[in-house]
Amino acid sequence: MNFPEGLPIGSDWVPTPSTAPVHFPYDGTVVAEAPIGTVELAGRALENALSVRTQVGRLPSHVRRKALQGALSALTEHRDAFVDLLVLETGKPLVDCRVEVERTLLTLETSAEEVARLHGETVPLDLLPSGDGLQGFWVRKPIGVVVGITGFNYPLLLAAHKIAPALAAGCPVIIKPAPQTPLATLWLAHLIRESLVSAGAPASAVQLVTGGADVGSTLTTDRRIGAVSFTGSAAVGHQIARDAAPTKVLLELGSNSALVVAEDANLPAAADAVVRGGYYASGQACISVQRVIVLESVREAFLAELTPRLDQLIVGDPRDPSTRVSALIDNHSTTRVRTWIDNAITAGATLTHPSHITQPTAPLPSLPADATSAPATSPAASEPTPAKSSAVIKPTVLLDLPPNQPIWDEEIFGPVIAIRSVPTLAAAFDTVNASRYGLHASVFTSSLATTFAAIDQLDVGGVVINEVPGFRSDVMPYGGVKDSGTGREGPRFAIEELTTTRMAIIRPNP
Fold this sequence. Notes:
By secondary structure, the chain is α/β, with parallel strands linked by helices. The protein folds into 2 domains: 21-253 and 486-504, 3-Layer(aba) Sandwich (Aldehyde Dehydrogenase, Chain A, domain 1); 258-357 and 394-477, Aldehyde Dehydrogenase, Chain A, domain 2, CATH 3.40.309. It is built from 16 helices and 22 strands. The strands form 6 sheets. A 7-stranded mixed β-sheet has the order 14-17-18-13-12-19-20, with helices on both faces. A 6-stranded mixed β-sheet has the order 9-8-7-10-11-21, sandwiched between helices. Strand 7, helix 6 and strand 8 (173-176) form a beta-alpha-beta unit.
């Protein structure tokens, strides 16, 4: 981790009054000490961002594009070290962290390309007689300072989806990473700031502040900012929206994504998708498969396909390339997920794959030196500490959940899927929609009629046919409806969200 100590505020790195250890979730090992921000530092970051708002908004397109291209090159150079760091601070399996870095690279690349596509249009004002002789056109202008708040599960990628479109739009941005996973985001911010300066832009166009809810409130409730972009839980997102009003707020919130298995589905492919889509990132993804809705006529055949695939999943050390499920982010999350599982079983759900049987952590080799360097004042990165996560939850399957169970109604954010069967396709679609969430849903079918019915009837932000609901290309519009959020990400669409139209009306000959 080759970046200065402290926080990147203004044009420098500012020391913080305290630090806190970042733990490797699999065994509790200390990865490094992370700086802890304060309300005072958040205020300084806001003032710095506001002071360069006009300058950043007027940066030529070639400067903004060059800065993003430079960040892309720097991240590419360090891609392997970023992968190692992500494994250590998130505990996600190595395969998922590699995907995260590749998606981050694509996000930076496409954001740089979108700078060249930021334009307006002419308007035929003379459609009414009062517009005779008038010339009209609109342009896009940056919305102002952007505050981006990210979740712990994809810290590098989520930060890139906040920072890169903001810079492409001409907006200074302040990023606040999740307390559990600040390291990769700090490093990314450092690389982007260096690239900004190299391109002739101010480093303070990108700043980062860590800290608790008081820091977040300071950043989001200042009426001088242009927009807040938040990724996280629905409860926190809704509170931010209330507190920040009338500031524009973009919310990428949770979900309990459904996968429908129709009567004409390719059952082996559907079973593969449930396993692949339900347990990647150890289930800590807002569009992972959580609810599986199977037509009754194919229920037993589908379960026969699913069961042997579950036993092939390797559970354990996330640094092992073969691992697919590992520890959750912290002990609180582990305890919550296990409690929801136990409560569902007590209420009458059928456990078909082990859940409360846990995988104990084993002695591990020393952590990679290039991704675990820590300040001299902290414990050595490879020094054992009490495990932060007591056990790894094995991939879990529950059948026939009774009503009002959180595993079906809420977002579990763990390696758990729940299966219900329904008599008809119409009932399946109704079951998908009977949720307060609506981010992504998928349907496995061989029917074009069913495909278009799903696209028409499912009340979600994205309908995926014959693929996992967790499919996301970073260039597409991404976002949800209902309690899953407002606004859209993806560089082109985020840039539109972070700019405003300015109409120009000209009468050449008054």
